Amino acid sequence: NSFCTLLVRRQSLSMTLAQPIHQRLEVERVLGNGTYGQVVRCLEHGANRRVAVKVAKPEPPYRRSAENEIFVLRSLQHCPRVLRFIDSFESDNRIHIVTELLQKNLYEALKDARFRRMSLRRVRDVAESVLTAIAELHSIGYMHCDIKPENVMQRGKCEGADDIVMIDFGSVRKVAENQYYDVQSLWYRAPEVMCGLPYTTKIDSWSIGCLLYELHTGMPLFPGDNEQDSMAQIVGVVGRPSATAMGFGTKTMMFDFEPSSAVDPYVLQTNLEGDDTQVTL
């Protein structure tokens, strides 16, 4: 009964409503478009349920991203705080990922509430769910690298933390792949990424902190226009990076402030030249 064994009739990435892309899937509406491709809502005939289908672009980077996402989703299906994977198939050199259909993401929830702060109880529910999902992800050796309100969704079928689901694992990196700096959305980007330092799973912790602040206040914590602006805002709150961090970082030359001589409480554990080194930001 695998979706993969059935023929796919869709011929282009831009889908017309009610156009069948699969003998058991009928496209009803486009849910979103992005750099990766497109997400559509489909009716699955036979099972009489609606599902979401993520359609990746055919270029190699997007294929790799989709393959990584499938691996992670399969590996984390025991965790109820992670998007439920149903199946995947390929057509026209495009990978399709079929998952449960969710209600809305947390950015949409904030927008619907006119960016009024969420209750502390609701923020705690989000924290419990996201931290559980990310801990499971880290346990299999991956970092999410794109935690933000748009990538946390509500099932809309229950109360509490069980209603909150982590999605979009297309940007994941293995823990050892910690010197690629095209990761994380700007407002949720950790300072070690901006500085060009080897990073750890703690970059996800940074993003979660930014996320929870935004949910409880209705406003983003570091809404920079670019990395220089974001880093200036971060420095205004937590202080300047240390001289060690500024010396090791490959991107620090873009910042025009002097390094701190004080020992800051934020310490990044890296693995530079094979040694367990502490780099104080």
TrEMBL record:
Classification via Gene3D superfamilies:
Transferase(Phosphotransferase) domain 1 (1.10.510.10)
Ranges of residues in domain Protein kinase = 25-281
Which PROSITE patterns does the record associate with it? PROTEIN_KINASE_ATP (PS00107), PROTEIN_KINASE_DOM (PS50011)
- Top-rank taxon: Eukaryota
Q: Give the matching SUPFAM superfamilies.
A: Protein kinase-like (PK-like)
Q: Does the keyword Nucleotide-binding apply?
A: yes
| Sorted UniProt keywords | ATP-binding, Kinase, Nucleotide-binding, Serine/threonine-protein kinase, Transferase
What GO CC terms are in its UniProt record?
cytoplasm
InterPro entries noted in UniProt: Kinase-like_dom_sf, Prot_kinase_dom, Protein_kinase_ATP_BS, Ser_Thr_dual-spec_kinase
Question: What name does the UniProt record give this protein?
Answer: Protein kinase domain-containing protein
State the organism named in the record.
Neobodo designis (Flagellated protozoan)
Organism lineage reads as: Eukaryota, Discoba, Euglenozoa, Kinetoplastea, Metakinetoplastina
